[in-house]
Batch of 2 targets.
Target 1
Amino acid sequence: MKCDPALELRSNVVEFRNCGGISSTLMARLHKKCQEHGISAILPFPVEKIIVKNWVNMKCRYGCSKYGTSWCCPPATPEPEKARAILSEYTTALLLTGHRQCADFYLDNCRKRTGMVRYWKGIISTERLLFLEGYYKAFALVSGVCSLCKKCAYPDPCRFPQEKRPMIESFSIDVIGTLRNLGATSHVAVNTGEAFNYHGIILLE
Ligand code: SF4
């Protein structure tokens, strides 16, 4: 497709890549960045495989202690209909997966928070890398509530708005159903001796 001449004059315009796929060079850079942040696997997939269900929002509203306590959780995040509309503007996404020991899940200590912050920053910096590579619509949905602050400022203004992103579940995404849809493992850890997987999604284009 011929570019707009006005755009051709701007030497800093990054070429937009559509469904041609991610180059192996870029994928290698993504893997390196992700590994530095405890993310061990990256899977490109079609956004149509994401399952959005109203019951996920219900589970946030009833039964989750984080409801109404974070900028990354309902009711601060989009309602299911809005989430569906946003997702419909994308065709491709990346699934990012890491592991953590289940024992940490039940703790509220420095080690757990350090791991969560490391992971959070990894997802955001990967989104940034993709943006700079020309995927200008890149937007991350993160696993686990934002831990950048010891206690979220909500409902006062976020202290790090550039790093604020919604949790995957806050978009009413059925994570286990979506993983099954992708043919990925969806084992739920049931005792503290097990490791559990955590997942982030970067909406790409
Ligand atoms: S950066 Fe701080 S204030 Fe903003 S969403 Fe995260 S925890 Fe809340």
Target 2
Amino acid sequence: MLAGVLIAESLRVGAQLTGVPLQIIELARVEMTSTGVDQPRYWTPLYFTAAESEASRPAAELATCLAPTGGWYTDFHTATDTFVVFADKVSATHGVRPKTAPRKGKAVMSNEHASCVFCGEFVLHIPGWASSVPSYRLMRATWQEDHAFVVGSLHFSCLRASPARSEFAAEFAQIATGHGREITYQAAGETQTLIQPGLGYVEQIFRGDECAIHRSDTRDSWLVREYAGPWYVLDRPQLEDIARGKRPRLDPGVERIVLPREPMADLADATLPELLDSLGVTDRYPGLAAGEPEYEFWKYFAPKRVLEYAVIATPPLPAEAAAFLRDYAPGYRPIDFDALERDDPRS
Ligand SMILES: [Zn+2]
């Protein structure tokens, strides 16, 4: 099977993708806080799969469908090859993905690879303990010789334990605290220029020994990032919790994942510790109990081993960040979105 993501807005007007049986497995709508010239603010990623034998065919078809302006590209991968598709151009790279995402026969999650990019084990997304790097983030493994793209999920504990933790955090910080930067990418002997979308956390409001806190300049959103470890995004509800003297709770909503194998028999009644235990990854979530996670089983679709669940948890913020935010939160002034709309030429 091949899997990839296509941004609907990257299609040129009049484009028609016919004759390639793509299965859309997830459709999302995301706000990009900073985008390249000729790119809209809202993107619609279409996560798709297709039969692997047809890898070169969708690549060629997609190349004819992408808009020639705007720096658009799409990418998909098979077990061994990564295809990066530009307008009227395809570059195939053999064997890139396994370097960044070790495969151990684990399942592919509905929207990203479910194997940890560091340890290769299954990643259950729990806010504050795991996350993912989507392919359109264009994050590069600067600690590897070929600067391959990092795509997939990760346990935060594995990031903390990795020899590459500082480089990973530095590269993430470049993306998170900027408004997009141009990067060049060598593929099949050619240099491609791409726009790495920034997350727009440009205003640093705290710098401690272990972590920094940045505020978005377009949304009521804050990023706590460790210099050699993971990151946590806090939005207005979390700041309001802190302002009221409560611990912030992260509620990312319902997650869909494909389990790596047949699950435990009583999955619908399992607790979170029982689920993690049955998946064999309990030790990847150290200190999880302190986050008082509330786990809720939603649905299990056995034929495709798709589990839908939700977890709400308190993120394990560094003590210095928590202390700063306790002082900061009561006095924060929400962003005036009406004023932003008036000033924003994109809206
Ligand atoms: Zn891991």
